[in-house]
Amino acid sequence: MKEKLILDVDTGIDDAIGILLAVKSNAFDILGITTVNGNVSLDQATTNTCKILDLLKADHIPVIKGAATPLLREPFFEHRIHGEDGLGGALKEAAVTHPVSDGFAPDFLINSILSFSGEVTLVFTGPLTNLALAVKKCPQITKHVKEVIFMGGVVKGPGNVTPTAEFNSYVDPEAAKIVLHAGFPSITQVGLDVTRKALLTKEHLEYIKDDTLREYISQSTNDYQQKYFGRYGIHACAMHDPLAVGIAINKKIVETEKYFVDIETKSELCDGQLICDFQNRLNKKANLQISLKVDDHAFFQMFIDILNGHFEERE
Q1: Where residue 219 sits, what CATH number does that domain have?
Q2: What integer is the mean pLDDT of 25-48?
Q3: Which of 204, 240, 297, 310 is catalytic?
Q4: Is 240 a catalytic residue?
């Protein structure tokens, strides 16, 4: 039986590739994809999600809109990286045919989790606003979720939107704080410590045999790779969100350790910074599996195999 999965996305360039990976893996019964304000507006994230599902001809997967703003803060978009449309200009002229389902993402999360108690894995690749709202409305869902995996934060390196904060954690740190303290029995963080080591290059793209997917990924990541080169000196696209999906498929691609982790919400300089108590100085119970090492070779081998339709054969 396939594992039940819900993706929660603020669909920019790497979220879209994460959706491609989840759907093409054929490893999940995807109950739905929920959208949230983040890289782009809620409406743009929803449109982008529908465009990707159209590209994949995945008509059966519901798309449900969620929070249009962070819990307490004004939206903060990342157009400088993802472009005004969020997909780096790819699919800009594509007509959208995939429907948006009725409902509100936090309610969809609650109903799905309670309907399939202990069976649903949640993968979040944007700010954690929808999950925080679901927890506030129905705290008992923490006892019924199989696993939560989220892309966000950094514990041992610099941020990517401020000197200390990663984008998702910076956009809605209050939501992240609610999630971190909600009591989920299994919750894994996938942050910049590992995603910056999973770098998609043009060489990887050459191995993708599907012309449509190769062309889409190449076009959507082109400007991103140029900007990454300008900052880091390498033409690459960091696979932040696809790595979170990859861990849902195969946990062996990362090494994790469990620590007590909190997030800063009241600092002029450090809002959104994840604070990991590596030395247990706070004497608090560990609440989060932190991803600290990644086998990037294994990840990209899996990534290419999945996009080429060979993943199940290898398994």
Answers
A1: 3.90.245.10
A2: 97
A3: 240
A4: yes
